Amino acid sequence: MRDGKINFEKNRINIVLNCGSSSVKYKVFVSGGGKCIVKGLVEKIGSAESIVTHINETLPKTLRLVENIKNHNEAIEEILNFLLNGEESVIKNSAQIKSVGHRIVHGGKYSEPVLVDKEVKKYLMDVTFELAPLHNPYNYQGIQAVENILPGVPNVGCFDTAFHQTLPDYAFIYALPYVYFKKHLVRKYGFHGTSHQYVSEIAGEMLDIPKEKSRIITCHIGNGVSLAAVKGGKCVDTSMGFTPLEGAMMGTRSGDVDPAAVLHIMMAEELGIREMDTVLNKQSGLLGVSGISNDMRDILKAVEKGNDRARLAFEMFCYRIRKYIGGYISVLNGADAIVFTAGAGENSSAVREEILKNLENIGIIIDPERNRDSGGCASRVISSAASKIKVFVIPTDEELMISRMIDKIVK
User: Fold this and answer.
1) Are residues 145 and 204 in the same domain?
2) Are residues 131 and 238 both part of a single domain?
3) Do 140 and 205 belong together in one domain?
4) How confident is the model at residue 9 (pLDDT cuts 50, 70, 90)?
5) Which of left, alpha, beta for 62 (phi over 0: left; psi -120 to 50: alpha)?
6) Strand order in the sheet with 215-221
7) Mean model confidence pLDDT for the chain
8) Strand pairing report for 225-231 and 380-381
9) Which CATH number covers residue 136?
10) How far apart are CA 111 and CA 107, in angstroms?
């Protein structure tokens, strides 16, 4: 930065991109140091009024623009132009960029981040586009854009499914005819893996036990919700499945439901496959039960006003997560720590309290004061000294995790 305090021009830089259907999020890190120096977001791609936001973390300073961004290539061009040529540019020239990391929702067979080459791109198109048609094509567009704009700069694919590739076969195979697994790759993949990996590593550092002996349950509770059972640093089970629909109740997703109930509704309501898919993924969960919102903050406000459907939605949401925690304690043969992260996991003391209530008999005791304290968004312990299982709140940072992955692959 040209403020006279820190000279980033002598450092190599990692750029992390997260491409959605109509947005691109980014963060820029000093390689090897873990320090985020700039972050931003391009929203409403394809609109004449796309919103571009750049946040300089070192000043701090925010720049917000409204532009006409037609596609992902233009969005990434906008980001790189700001980073390389803007008034507060942090990159001297493109040679300073060590690598660009891409968050990719579905990695199929990949259990680790990979340098993107022709073979990787072919696999992504041939296999993962079918497994994640709503996400992976846009993630792939981000790779293509960087190749066009920064030829020669290494691209690293980092997959949300990769952390869960250590599941044993009896945990990831469904009790369906085995031919569907072999022929159509129908199995549990799990998602939010980058988040689960990051917070489980931080929790491991906070525990005073060797990593190989650790047993940690991570709870990613945002609009999407997933849990993971992590033993010795490796994931042995997770709640999301073939798609992010399986598992706990979520903001708009149903989570676990009897498939026969789905078939019954389709016949009774004369719904097609796509219509039912919309019901399960976009009209269920907190929104579907409460009839109010998919946002836990709105649900809690309605509960305070005596809204019975909001109360029901809140209790269902927390109850189902509690069941998964109990199940994972069994899977791990005990637990050393439970971690809450993401939107409601990090910010809602009411959600955490409800999820863990009446679990004293298995050694989980929350300290009410610690639970209410926001901790200034820092990682913290919220369990009491008497709790046999520690309870942590750890803010997730998927982009930082990806930057660390880049440093392991690109020297």
Assistant:
1) no
2) no
3) no
4) low
5) beta
6) 234-238, 225-231, 215-221, 337-341, 390-393, 380-381
7) 92
8) unpaired
9) 3.30.420.40
10) 8
The residue to which tokens 């913290």 are assigned: 380
pLDDT tens, position by position, 296-308: 999 999 999 999 9
Separation in Å, CA 125 to CA 16, 119, 192: 21, 10, 21
For residue 102, the SS3 value is strand
Give every CB contact of residue 230 below 8 A, 6+ residues apart in sequence.
196, 200, 214, 215, 216, 217, 218, 236
Q: Cα Rg for the chain, rounded, in angstroms?
A: 22
Give, as one character, the DSSP assignment of residue 109: T
Indicate the range of 70-84, 253-267, 299-313, 390-404 predicted with least confidence: 70-84
160 catalytically annotated: yes
For residue 247, the enclosing domain spans 193-398
Token pair for 366: 């929350």
Q: Which of 144, 159, 174 is the last residue of a domain?
A: 159
- CB atoms inside a 10 Å sphere around CB 90: 23
Q: List, as one string, the DSSP characters of 168-221.
A: -HHHHS-SS-HHHHHHH--S---S-HHHHHHHHHHHHHHSSS-GGG-EEEEEEE
Q: Are residues 102 and 221 in the same domain?
A: no
Structure letter (DSSP) for residue 364: -
Catalytic residue chosen out of the listed positions 3, 160, 295, 308: 160
What is the number of helices (H) and of strands (E) in the chain? 16, 14
278, part of any domain: yes
Residue 184 lies in a domain: no
Q: Tell me the two tokens of residue 106.
A: 């579905």
Residue 407 domain flag: no
Q: Cα dist. 233→6, 162, 200, 394 in Å?
A: 35, 13, 7, 16
Instruction: Answer yes or no: is 217 within a domain.
Output: yes
Residues in the chain: 411
Into how many domains does the chain fold? 2
